[in-house]
Amino acid sequence: MKNVTDSFVSLGHWPSAGSFGFNTDILATNPINLSVVLGVLIYFGKGVLNDLLDNRKQRILSTIRNSEELRRGAVEQLERARARLRKVEIEADEYRMNGYSEIEREKVNLINAACDSLERLENYKNETLHFEQQRAINQVRQRVFQQALQGALGTLNSCLNSELHFRTISVNIGILRAMEEITD
Fold it and tell me: Which residues form a coiled coil (predicted)?
């Protein structure tokens, strides 16, 4: 403690002007120098420091205001996006429901068209079968008729002589004349 009091006592005693030296006593010089420097800094730097702090405060407030505006804009965009999403979801549901009903209508139409086609094919098949049956029956009739006619001609030719033939022709001519008189 004696060193501290000695340093204050030595303040009253200045060394001679011709000599220059360093005071190596840390406790004696540093607190005084620091208090002087801090006092000067506080006195002269208070305005500059206040200006720097005010500028920093204004920049921070400006950044906060900008952030709030950006946040409000983002919230508005989010709400608009949500509204568009709801609208698109509603439209998608409508398209889905319309698509399902359209698919059902198409399915029913295809089934009906297939049934109609099958019915037409069945009718065509039946008509074709009926036509083929009629044609086969007609062919059989023609053959039977031709065979019967050939048999009858053969029988007539073998049984007919000229006189019987002449009488048959005369009778048929008489029948034709009688038919002609009836029609006139």
Answer: 64-98
